[in-house]
Amino acid sequence: MRIILDKESDALYFRLDEARIADSEEIKPGVIVDYDENDRVVGVEFLNISSRASEEQLNSFQLQLA
Question: Whole-model pTM?
Answer without folding.
Answer: 0.86
